[in-house]
């Protein structure tokens, strides 16, 4: 595989975490404009753990994931009782709050004679675990793929268990969910925790691939993008958001035919898909049909 | 200190009145459609660039630039309405939102293509001297901004309460089912409301651009954010709330900017926004989210 | 395991309108009560108070002696109250099977969210398919509710209610919009599968169903209980006839 393909695939993988994270909340009936906050938290926490504290990679990434999940749950605790629009704006406010805090967040320590760590708006350089451990881009793509497979596996387990059904019932009709004995608030907080952890995993992996992160990378635009991926790809299955990422980054960026008109083409494509299929390409109905076909 | 606060409040009220107009635009669309048009800001951005283009090509005066801004915003909004709202079924609110985001991408890319530079000049009103009221200063363009916004809001109030169209808009916002039954042409009223919102947004965009004197395509994102935030602070679905939300946001931002600098302003603004949402979910105007819960309970 | 219900002095208002005014209703375990009254008389409001969606202004609701005041709808559901809806409330995007299964997710331990053993899945599947079979819906298990007829949707709601195995069932016009033959069929299903071993309150305008299922009825009018007693006796009451059927006293 050439370097370009590897970098495109890595990008697809990393954005998939963010897209799945927003998708989990969409399934649960909540629109989040702010999953990039957890991506940023994962990136910074993972980076600090491996670069500043010199923790092993897996532990550093794990730290990022746990922090993202815990903060996701804590933010959800007061916000889940907000409805629709209010929740969306609250997530947006939190994400911008995180970004503006990172703009003034400095935490530098001397490591091997160099000052390492985040330095406010100047960003966070030298997250060099992959370089020091001698992991090639292809090997790192493998790590990203393994992480993504773990997330998909977790969601597949939830689909076999009661988790996904609970999320979907709450998302579809919270009042009815309550009448079926489901604790709607608790399920929403659980969904936000899960979504926070997934986004943070993506962020931690991203930081170690890019070796440099800065607050400006975690703006609203990428949050809205990740939300759109799920809506384009479809809400019926976890492969929906991944399909959305594939369409955007895979098709348009890698083909380069549309080069500078990429957004005009992408925008038009998305608008068209949504007119024809308001719940995305892989919507619930299609997924059920595919499942029935597979079962035969 | 006290003087600073007074000065900041005045400046904040002026810029806040523009935020209020943006929020009113959002509220009109949200009220009638029950769907969120996040391409509202970018539509205004198209209008502003149309004005800037007219200005740079023929060094047009304020009035043609103003009209071009409105025309651009209205045209872009009409495009958004056709593609993202009229063409998508009424119950697919998420699809409309995602679609308006897609159109946002298109509009932004299109503008960047036509205007490849980073910033463009916009004609300003700065020929009038600074007004001094005792110890505080009032920038004339701020005064113009405030007065225009006030006049526009009065006009809007008149339209909504005194005309047949206004009555239809209010019926539709209050109860879509009742509106349909009583013979309101829902599609047409929705379209016209979209255009009305675009005009209001266009005026706000013009005022802001004419105050700053320079514009970038980022103003689309900026306008969407400020409008949304002001709308939600004020309480969804209330025009009065939207205006109050805009003014509060403007004043808070101005104070925080003065005392804490740009980074501090962002942190304070978003912290306040988050806290306001959590503690005061029905907004300053005291009106709860008209949608979700009441509607869900009504179905019981 | 049927529950005893005691409703004491229950009142609630929406805005200025008094929806219920000091209503007392007592149900002994296993009893089936028909609730009738003109539209807007507070029948559905009573259900909404019982399921915890509105808070009473005054009065108390006791389920087997347990006070339901201040409990959330989900807790009340777990105490064993389940209901159907006059305007149908199905999960549009989920399959018929998942609609019935919705009643089985409460009280599940956290582990179940991530994993169900194949045996547990099979057991759940078998019992729910049996349930769907009773209502003639097993063929439609993988369809969406939108693909069902109105009658099938009403059956599906009752199947979902049974999946929760409640102690007290609240049926809100189970035969609305049905023909006489369909009403007869659903009456039989309710009598054989829903009522045995449960207490029930049934709101219904169709006397055919009420007379067949409910040995006792209560009549609400403008939020007040105006009659309560054996069905035949209440229906013969002239005040009831006047409020309900608009008939002049003879």
Automatic annotation (TrEMBL), chain B:
Give the top-rank taxon of the lineage listed in the UniProt record for this protein. Bacteria
Q: How does it sit in the membrane?
A: Multi-pass membrane protein
**UniProt keyword terms in alphabetical order:** Amino-acid transport, Cell membrane, Membrane, Transmembrane, Transmembrane helix, Transport
Provide the transmembrane region boundaries: 12-31, 38-55, 61-80, 142-160, 186-208, 228-252, 258-280
Which Pfam families does the entry mention? BPD_transp_2
Q: Has UniProt tagged this entry with the keyword Translocase?
A: no
Query: Is Cytoplasm among the key words of this record?
Result: no
Where does the record place it? Cell membrane
Family of the protein in this entry? Belongs to the binding-protein-dependent transport system permease family. LivHM subfamily.
PANTHER family with a match to the protein in the record: AMINO ACID ABC TRANSPORTER PERMEASE PROTEIN (PTHR11795:SF445), BRANCHED-CHAIN AMINO ACID TRANSPORT SYSTEM PERMEASE PROTEIN LIVH (PTHR11795)
Q: What is this protein called?
A: Branched-chain amino acid ABC transporter permease
Q: What is the lineage of its organism?
A: Bacteria, Pseudomonadati, Pseudomonadota, Alphaproteobacteria, Rhodobacterales
From TrEMBL, chain C:
Q: Describe the location of the ABC transporter domain by residue ranges.
A: 5-247
* Pfam families assigned: ABC_tran (PF00005)
Q: Which residues form a coiled coil?
A: none
Q: Which SMART domains match?
A: AAA
UniProt keyword terms in alphabetical order = ATP-binding, Nucleotide-binding, Transport
Q: What GO MF annotations does this protein's record show?
A: ATP binding
Give the protein name, as stated in the record: ABC transporter ATP-binding protein
């Amino acid at each position: 595989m050439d370097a370009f393909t590897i970098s495109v695939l890595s990008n697809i993988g990393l954005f998939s975490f963010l897209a799945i994270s927003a998708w989990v909340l969409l399934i649960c009936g909540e629109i989040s404009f702010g999953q990039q906050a957890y991506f940023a938290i994962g990136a910074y926490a993972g980076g600090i753990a491996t670069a500043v504290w010199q923790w092993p990679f897996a532990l550093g990434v794990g730290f990022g994931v746990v922090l993202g999940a815990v903060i996701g749950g804590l933010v959800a605790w007061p916000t889940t009782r907000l409805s629709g629009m209010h929740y969306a704006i609250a997530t947006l406010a939190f994400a911008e709050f995180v970004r503006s805090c990172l703009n003034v967040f400095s935490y530098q320590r001397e490591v091997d004679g160099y000052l390492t760590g985040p330095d406010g708006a100047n960003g966070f350089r030298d997250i060099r675990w992959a370089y020091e451990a001698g992991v090639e881009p292809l090997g790192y793509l493998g790590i990203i793929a393994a992480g993504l497979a773990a997330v998909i596996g977790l969601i597949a387990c939830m689909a076999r268990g009661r988790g996904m059904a609970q999320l979907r019932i709450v998302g579809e009709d919270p009042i009815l969910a309550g009448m079926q004995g489901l604790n709607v608030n608790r399920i929403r907080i659980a969904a936000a925790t899960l979504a926070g952890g997934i986004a943070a995993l993506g962020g931690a992996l991203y930081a170690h691939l890019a070796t440099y992160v800065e607050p400006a990378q975690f703006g609203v635009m990428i949050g809205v993008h990740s939300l759109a991926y799920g809506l384009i790809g479809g809400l019926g299955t976890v492969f929906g958001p991944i399909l959305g990422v594939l369409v955007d980054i895979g098709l348009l960026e890698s083909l380069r035919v549309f080069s500078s008109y990429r957004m005009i083409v992408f925008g038009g494509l998305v608008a068209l898909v949504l007119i024809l299929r308001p719940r995305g390409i892989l919507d619930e109905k299609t997924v059920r049909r595919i499942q029935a076909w597979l079962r035969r | 200190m006290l003087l600073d606060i007074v000065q900041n409040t005045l400046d904040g009220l002026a810029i806040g009145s523009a935020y209020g107009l943006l929020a009113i635009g959002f509220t009109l669309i949200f009220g009638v459609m029950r769907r969120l048009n996040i391409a509202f800001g970018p539509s205004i951005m198209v209008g502003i660039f149309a004005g800037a283009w007219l200005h740079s090509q023929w060094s047009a005066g304020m009035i043609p630039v103003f009209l071009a801004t409105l025309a651009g915003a209205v045209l872009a909004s009409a495009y958004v309405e056709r593609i993202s709202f009229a063409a998508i079924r009424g119950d697919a609110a998420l699809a409309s939102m995602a679609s308006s985001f897609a159109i946002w991408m298109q509009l932004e890319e299109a503008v960047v293509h036509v205007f490849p530079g980073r910033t463009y000049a916009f004609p300003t009103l700065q020929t009038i001297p600074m007004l001094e009221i005792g110890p505080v200063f009032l920038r004339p363009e701020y005064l113009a901004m405030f007065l225009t916004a006030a006049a526009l809001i009065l006009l809007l109030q008149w339209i909504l309460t005194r005309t047949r169209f206004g009555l239809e808009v209010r019926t539709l916002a209050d109860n879509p089912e009742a509106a349909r039954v009583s013979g309101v042409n829902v599609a047409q009223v929705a379209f016209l409301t979209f255009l009305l919102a675009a005009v209001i947004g266009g005026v706000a965009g013009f005022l802001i651009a004419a105050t700053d004197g320079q514009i970038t395509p980022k103003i689309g994102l900026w306008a969407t954010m400020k409008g949304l935030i002001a709308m939600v602070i004020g309480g969804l679905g209330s025009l009065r709330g939207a205006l109050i939300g805009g003014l509060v946001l403007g004043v808070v931002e101005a104070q925080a900017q003065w005392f804490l600098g740009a980074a501090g302003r962002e942190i304070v603004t978003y912290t306040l926004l988050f806290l306001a949402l959590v503690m005061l979910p029905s907004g300053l105007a005291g009106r709860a989210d008209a949608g979700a819960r009441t509607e869900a309970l009504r179905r019981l | 395991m049927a529950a005893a219900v005691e409703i004491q002095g229950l009142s609630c208002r929406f805005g200025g309108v008094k929806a219920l005014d000091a209503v007392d209703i007592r149900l002994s375990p296993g009893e089936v009560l028909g609730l009738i009254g003109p539209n807007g008389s507070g029948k559905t409001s009573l259900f909404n108070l019982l399921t915890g969606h509105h808070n009473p202004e005054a009065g108390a609701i006791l389920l087997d002696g347990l006070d339901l005041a201040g409990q959330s709808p989900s807790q009340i559901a777990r105490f064993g109250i389940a209901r159907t809806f006059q305007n149908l409330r199905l999960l549009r995007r989920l399959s018929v099977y998942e609609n019935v299964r919705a009643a089985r997710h409460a009280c599940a331990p956290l582990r179940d969210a991530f994993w169900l053993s194949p045996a547990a899945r099979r057991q759940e599947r078998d019992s729910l398919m049996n349930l769907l079979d009773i209502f003639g819906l097993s063929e439609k298990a993988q369809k969406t509710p939108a693909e069902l007829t109105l009658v099938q949707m009403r059956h599906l709601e009752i199947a979902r209610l049974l999946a929760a195995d409640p102690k007290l069932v609240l049926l809100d016009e189970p035969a609305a919009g049905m023909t006489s033959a369909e009403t007869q069929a659903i009456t039989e299903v309710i009598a054989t599968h829903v009522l045995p071993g449960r207490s029930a309150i049934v709101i219904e305008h169709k006397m055919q169903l009420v007379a067949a299922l409910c040995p006792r009825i209560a009549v609400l009018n403008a939020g007040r209980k105006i009659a309560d007693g054996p069905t035949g006796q209440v229906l013969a009451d002239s005040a009831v006839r006047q409020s309900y059927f608009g008939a002049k006293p003879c």
